Amino acid sequence: MAAKDAAKDQAAELKKARRGMIWSLLPKIPLLFRVLFSRILGMSETARYLDLETDLTLTVLRATLSSSKPQPISKTQAMTLLDPGVKGRIWIANAVSEVPPERGIREALMDTIRSMSDSEAQAAKFKIPDIVPVEAEWTGYRAGVASDAPLPDIPEEQKYEAMMKECKNATTMLYFHGGAYYLCDPSTHRQLTKRLAKNMGGRVYSVRYRLAPQYPFPAALLDALVSYFTLLYPPPGSMHEAVSARDIVFGGDSAGGNLALALTQTLLQLRRQNVKISWFGTKRNVPLPAGITVLSPWLDITQSMPSWSTNSKWDYLPNPDNFEGREHPSDDIWPTTPPRKHLYVDDAFRLHPLVSLHLNTSWEGIPPVWISCGWEALADEDKYFVSKLRADGVPVVFEEYEAMPHVFAAVLPKVAQTERCVQGWARFITTTRKDPASITSSYTYIKAKTLEEVEGDVEKLTPFEQKDVYGLACSKVGREPPLPLVSPKL
Question: SS3 sequence, 382-397?
């Protein structure tokens, strides 16, 4: 009864939020007409690349995120956590990573964070997160049902078994949703994870990691590490069997891409130190996954690179100050005690290489990487990262989509670019399982409207070098560069 009442309350809140969104569109009608007339008169630059529906959608998003009266963080966060429900051609089976009796996995992560800290971070204190049960959604494609078919009212184990019967291979994506580390949930990304599951013929383990500002760095990273070990070495009572690292690919968008790469760098550091982790009574190895896949990854937490301003007309992301919480009214969760500037991370750790991932000195030894972005605010950091991976000898498949905004495959599910993106994403994942040795570095530029694929010029991918990105990040947080870069502890 309590569960049904909670579901009714959630549905009511969702309807209320949708009504609010419709009313919020009314003041934007003149802006939409302006876009329309601009296209009719041949004065619109975006019309060369975007269809009318996409152009209007991005205009509304940009106006909503940039000009709306700032809301308390807790209210904005709560709206993105409303579950729209499950129906149609998708399997969802809820799971949880149980808490191990040992604390070895947490201590291993804390040691890694300290070993990679610069002098300021070494001197600072941060809250060490507890190990908690981490929820996740097993997601798979459900064939042969209507688009509005409800999810069967059966136990989660039976949903999982039904999903597994439709999986064509053992490929498992460990997925981390985006949302700037303080918004969204696996439920907001179901359509994207369902499409990935369908195209790769496998399944997705979509993690409900802890959100900031209530749980700042490194809580989400600990949840990610626990979730990976849960796949590899299932705790007693788990409904899944052990998944080989050869069948696991990390995935994530935006902040989720940051988390996927932070987890990868953590594993790399643990392996360099030959660490084994006590997990439910057994010392466990720390393997790397088969591949890493990230869409529009947020790598520079300081948001210091030029594309945040130069690409603003193609993107919908708000001013970087929004991510530091400066404009948000006070509520129960913000500002924090003790106070900090950034929603996600304590001030002294903004340049930590497990936070701003583009500042890592080495990625040598990680598995092949697939990365995609558009003409977005994060383009500079993403392109620099691709160049860095290539320099470190990591096979990296990079796809750039002309005129597309941040995380377009989730924001614009109906455009042809999204289908092309999902297919390329899934094709890379399949290759990591079938023929990983065949993966070589490439740069493909996908043109708008025609989807014509052009081989990109790798030499012109980025004008930035490591000292440049470090200097920009230092300047943004008010430090005097150069500071010593953190080298891996061998």
Answer: HHHHHHHHHHCCCCEE
In this prediction, residue 376 carries a pLDDT of 98
> Number of structural domains, the chain?
2
Q: Tokens 């969702």 map to which residue?
A: 14
Residues 71, 111, single domain; the answer is: no
Residue 262 has pLDDT above 90, yes or no: yes
Q: Which domain holds residue 213?
A: 90-477
Confirm whether 483 is domain-assigned: no
pTM of the model: 0.94
| Whether 175 and 116 share a structural domain | yes
Q: What one-character-per-residue DSSP string does 287-308 give?
A: ---SEEEEES----TT--STHH
pLDDT digits (tens, 9 = 90+) for 419-467: 999 999 999 999 999 999 999 999 999 999 999 999 999 999 999 999 9
- Shared domain for 327 and 263, answered yes or no, is yes
Domain boundary among 28, 46, 80: 80
pLDDT, tens digit, 9 for 90 and up, residues 41-67:
888 999 999 999 999 999 988 988 876
Note whether 168 and 44 are same-domain residues: no
Residues 70 and 127 in one domain: no
461-469 long-range CB contacts below 8 Å, 24 or more apart?
461/383, 461/386, 461/387, 461/398, 462/380, 462/383, 462/384, 462/386, 462/387, 464/305, 464/380, 464/384, 464/387, 466/361, 466/388, 469/300, 469/304, 469/305, 469/358, 469/359, 469/381, 469/384
Structure-token match 């070098």, residue found: 465
Domain boundary among 53, 80, 107: 80
Closest residue by Cα to residue 132 from 211, 248, 77, 240: 211
